[in-house]
Design goal:
Layout (H helix, E strand, L loop, with lengths): L1 H10 L3 H17 L13 E3 L2 E3 L3 E3 L10 H5 L5 E7 L12 E4 L4 E4 L8 H10 L5 E6 L10 H12 L5 E5 L14 H22 L5 E5 L5 H13 L4 E4 L20 E4 L3 H15 L5 E4 L5 H9 L4 E4 L1 H6 L2 H20 L2
Parallel strand pairs: 3-4, 3-13, 4-7, 7-8, 8-9, 9-10, 10-12, 12-13
Antiparallel strand pairs: 1-2, 5-6, 6-11
Amino acid sequence: MWYALARPLLFALDPETAHALTLALADAPLRLGLLRFPRPAPHPVRVMGLEFPNPVGLAAGLDKNAEHVDALAALGFGFIEVGTVTPRPQAGNPRPRLFRIPEAQALVNRLGFNNVGLDEFVANLSRANFRGVVGVNIGRNFDTPNERAADDYAACLEGVYAHASYVTVNVSSPNTVGLRELQERDRLDLLLGRLAALRERLAARHSRRVPFALKVSPDLEAAQIREIAAAVRRHGVDAVIATNTSLSREGIEGFRYAGEPGGVSGAPVRARATRALAAFAGELKGEVPLIGVGGILKGDDAAEKISSGAALVQLYTGLVYRGPGLIAECVSACQERSKTASSGSR
């Protein structure tokens, strides 16, 4: 209820200002239990060897610096993903760099991995009291060439390892020049091979094997999906997150800000992201779990991801347009879809 009242005021502000203000104002009331929301019904799932109280998580990008983990967890998410973090702090792209398209329930962003850097990020994460599942999304600095990208990802993996439930390797943001080239076969093999070997050393050191996921683009061709799926198998990747934002303007043509550079998220990306998810499901055949992201604006959208092969789903843009009530709605829809699938298989 309160979000429906607050949304017109927030939408009157610059999107990035509204984002920061919402997190700042809601942080303490949520952490202290002064601001409450209906808790989703329990719907436990086990994925990547981890126990999730429900399958609906927060996508990376909303809490880039791991400053609001406890507050966001109080909203009822089954898991939280924070970041993207890079080894060195960086300001990201010049503002304005985040744009709303309300007519299409969409966002365009070109934030560019703005974050406080690995050391401060880890310090923030270590202060969180939440003991549920926290994923950490890692990337490379904008000025690190792809030939040395593995150094950045390795530094991040080592730095966050002790604090993360799982780690997401982000090679699919369209807002860091050249980053998506890391999805190409040879470069992806080098990167995943390096991280897989490092993960084994870290697992021995910490006596704990932290799963890692690969976050992919919705704009991949069928041949690219086949190659990435093969690399995921080769290197023991524990999950695929499908998908990141899209460079396609399908569904926002003609609207103000449609021509702004950056990745599109929200309702126009739903079908494209779900097609990529289903394609990965077809290639991986249940061997590697999938996390569905992109265009979830209502419960049925989350259920569609589950039907298309996802074990978990994540929200971001839907929260901007629908508010925290979307979380419980999606948990309920996923639960109903799982019951239906279970009944049909008997």
